[in-house]
């Protein structure tokens, strides 16, 4: 007799599967004996034979053994290490179809986490890129020494195996060129590369960022300790071979952690920052400053925020989770006043500096949480007309959403990088705010990520 909780699918079992849709991580999703099965690399509409590699009570993970019926949108991934690297998830899907699937990933999140009538909602077509390659302005490559050769790259999916990436085709060519030259310099100077197992060696990671519009490059050498032998000579060699590198920094991270940067950074040579431009704005980017990884699409995203705000010059705006103030500055021209807050003091200093530099006099920035600061302003009689928010992947703080419902701005513009947390947050405030539309924007072509700009109006 069959046991009640005996798994319907066994480990290593082979079975046929029809892929229904893409999951939030870009994997194919199908159903076998009413159980959900996740299959990386499989596409909607495909009929495949899979092998179960992980069986959980609620879901199974499987790998493709054979494709019986191919999707008409399947293409050959141009990157030679695509299947090992794990940095991209959708290179095997034609780009115009990637945009459609990303809109569908958003719809799935709304189906799962809200009670909205989705067929009646205005969910727009995803805004894509004309050229969906070579867009990333920053790379963070781990270093390792293998057979006397320095390699740099990314860890394989769900593992600690480093994949050498001599040319990443979603990276801006300047970062690839600089990384390859620095590997050679480290080899020439016999720089000791950090070894995680033996805890010996010095250099762990190389972080390269380019100002796409200015051509300036910054290199950050992340080390396990403060000591970096012959660092001035290494920096001089970098600048000799790579005149575009205007800033060489050292960051010290002694911890065994998934975080790239430690607390301390030192300037080795050149400037402490590089400049980048987006439209009429110029930004100073220091080693640890957050900046969007795809400036071309960021302009499109921020223009969507501007469109949603539809400012007339009379409105008071709150830029919550403001970072260095980029979104607020973008809309400042049409606003009577901008007020922004963030919990990171350095970001607030950057926001103030950015406002001064661009002659924006109607902006105030303070350090702290929106849910603490907004009620205080409200008590003083200051009422915002529009609140704009661009939270981290975890979404808005629940206290912030409750504050929003108390303050009741006429418009709420929510910029999100995670459809699941966006959907949950929209449901939380849906009794008081109507979702006018959601505009997906493809900030990271070839990956499963999707960014959205949502306009909500007070009912």
Write structural notes for this entry.
25% of the residues lie in helices and 31% in strands. With 459 residues, it is an alpha/beta fold. It has three domains: 14-74, Beta Barrel (OB fold (Dihydrolipoamide Acetyltransferase, E2P)); 138-286, OB fold (Dihydrolipoamide Acetyltransferase, E2P); 295-458, Rossmann fold, CATH 3.40.50.150. It has a seven-stranded mixed beta sheet with strand order 8-7-6-9-10-11-12, with helices on one face. Strands 17-16-15-18-19-21-20 form a seven-stranded mixed beta sheet, sandwiched between helices. Strand 2 (28-32) and strand 3 form a beta hairpin. Helix 2 (95-113) packs parallel to helix 10, helix 3 packs across helix 4 and helix 8 runs parallel beside helix 9. It is globular and about 65 Å long.
């Amino acid at each position: 007799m069959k046991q009640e909780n005996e798994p319907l699918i066994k480990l290593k079992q082979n079975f046929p599967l029809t892929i229904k849709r893409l999951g939030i991580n870009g994997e194919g999703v199908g159903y076998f004996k009413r159980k959900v099965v996740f299959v990386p690399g499989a596409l909607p509409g495909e009929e495949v034979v899979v092998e179960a590699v992980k069986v959980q009570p609620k879901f199974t993970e499987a790998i493709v053994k054979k494709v019986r019926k191919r999707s008409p949108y399947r293409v050959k991934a141009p990157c030679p290490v695509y299947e090992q690297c794990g940095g991209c998830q959708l290179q095997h899907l034609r780009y115009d179809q990637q945009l459609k699937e990303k809109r569908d990933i958003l719809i799935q999140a709304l189906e799962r986490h809200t009670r909205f009538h989705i067929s009646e909602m205005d969910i727009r077509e995803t805004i894509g890129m004309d050229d969906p390659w070579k867009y990333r302005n920053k790379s963070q490559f781990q270093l390792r020494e293998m057979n006397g050769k320095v390699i740099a790259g990314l860890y394989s999916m769900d593992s600690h195996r480093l994949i050498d990436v001599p040319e990443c085709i979603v990276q801006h060519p300047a970062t690839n060129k600089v990384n390859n030259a620095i590997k050679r310099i480290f080899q020439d100077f016999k720089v000791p590369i950090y070894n995680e197992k033996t805890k010996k060696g010095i250099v762990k990671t190389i972080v390269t960022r380019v100002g796409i519009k200015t051509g300036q490059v910054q290199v950050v050498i992340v080390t396990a300790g403060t000591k970096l032998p012959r660092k001035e000579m290494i920096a001089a060699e970098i600048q000799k071979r790579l005149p575009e590198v205007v800033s060489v920094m050292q960051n010290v991270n002694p911890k065994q952690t998934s975080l790239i940067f430690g607390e301390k950074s030192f300037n080795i040579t050149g400037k402490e920052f590089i400049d980048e431009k987006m439209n009429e704005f110029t930004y100073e980017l220091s080693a640890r400053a957050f900046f969007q990884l795809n400036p071309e699409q960021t302009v499109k995203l921020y223009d969507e925020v501007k469109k949603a705000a539809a400012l007339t010059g009379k409105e008071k705006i709150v830029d919550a989770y403001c970072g260095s103030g980029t979104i607020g500055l973008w809309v400042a021209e049409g606003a009577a006043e901008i007020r922004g807050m963030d919990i990171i003091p350095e970001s607030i200093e950057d926001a103030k500096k950015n406002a001064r530099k661009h002659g924006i006099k109607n902006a105030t920035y303070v350090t702290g949480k929106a849910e603490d600061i907004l009620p205080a302003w409200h008590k003083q009689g200051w009422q915002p007309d529009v609140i704009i928010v661009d939270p981290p992947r975890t979404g808005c703080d629940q206290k912030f959403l409750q504050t929003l419902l108390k303050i009741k701005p006429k418009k709420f513009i929510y910029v999100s990088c995670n459809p699941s947390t966006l959907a949950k947050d929209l449901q939380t405030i849906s009794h008081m705010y109507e979702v006018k539309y959601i505009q997906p924007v493809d900030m990271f072509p070839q990956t499963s990520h999707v960014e959205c700009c949502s306009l909500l109006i007070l009912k």
